[in-house]
Design goal:
alpha/beta; Rossmann fold; 7-stranded mixed beta sheet; 6 helices; 9 strands; globular; binds S-adenosyl-L-homocysteine; SAM-dependent_MTases_sf; Protein-L-isoaspartate O-methyltransferase; transferase
């Protein structure tokens, strides 16, 4: 029997807190959400390794440290309405749900939507909603957002996403070519509508496929 709770605490300590991400709300969220519930059964024993794992539809659940880095950069607070693009397994959406008021997580693969929705409902993350669709368009029906967190990479940040941000809102998104090293970029929409850009380091994410992302070829 694996002691998942002990592994979870150790993961938070070694791969998140000791690597410099130490905001209490972030650590509390990672200590609460059971990652083993978001990976397929075969991989449960690796749920607390600090690496990505394969999920259905040929996608991946991101490395815990990178999920933490992305969410930390987005500066999520308890009154925020957040859009996650690329819900995948639903894990990052569940973490966001612990820190924000409301989370809309959009995913293009119907199979993943169904699995993520089942998990989110079973674990009672009532402020998290999994939506099927093309997140490269954002989610106009639910806009505006305080923060947008993209778990898939684009060649640029689509303007439609900036348009769906409140003044003071943040977007964190990996920018670069598919299947290469990308740069994690944070854009902050200032009160006057202008954007401030920060580069947060090198990452590797699956491509954002859609109208304002890459074309759907073999992904
Ligand atoms: N946040 C996820 C990581 C999933 S990987 C987790 O915690 O498990 C990125 C996901 O983005 C993939 O599931 C992929 O299908 C999805 N994706 C790619 N392009 C998309 C788009 N235009 N709209 C919505 N989801 C997209």
């Amino acid at each position: 029997m694996i002691d998942f709770a002990a592994e979870r605490d150790a993961m938070v300590e070694h791969t998140i807190r000791r690597r410099g991400l130490d905001r209490p709300a972030l650590l509390a969220a990672f200590r609460t959400v059971p990652r083993e519930e978001f990976v397929s059964g075969n991989y449960a024993g690796h749920a607390y390794d600090d690496g990505p794992l394969p999920i259905e539809s040929g996608q991946t659940i991101s490395q815990p440290y990178i999920v933490a880095l992305t969410i930390d950069a987005a500066g999520i607070g308890p009154t925020d309405k957040v859009l996650e693009i690329g819900a995948g397994s639903g894990y990052a959406a569940a973490i966001l749900g612990q820190m924000a008021r409301e989370v809309i997580a959009i995913e293009r693969h119907a199979e993943l939507v169904e699995l993520a929705r089942e998990r989110i409902e079973r674990l009672r993350y009532d402020n998290v909603r999994i939506v099927e669709g093309d997140g490269s368009r954002g989610c106009p029906a639910e806009a505006p957002f305080d923060a947008v967190v993209a778990a898939a990479s684009g060649s640029h940040v689509p303007t439609v996403l900036v348009d769906q941000l409140k003044p003071g809102g943040r977007i964190v998104m990996p920018i670069g070519a598919p299947h290469s090293i990308q740069s994690l970029v944070k854009l902050t929409k200032k009160e006057d509508g202008t954007l401030e850009r920060e580069d947060l380091g090198a990452v590797r994410f699956v491509p954002l496929i859609g109208e304002h992302g890459f074309a759907n070829t073999t992904f």
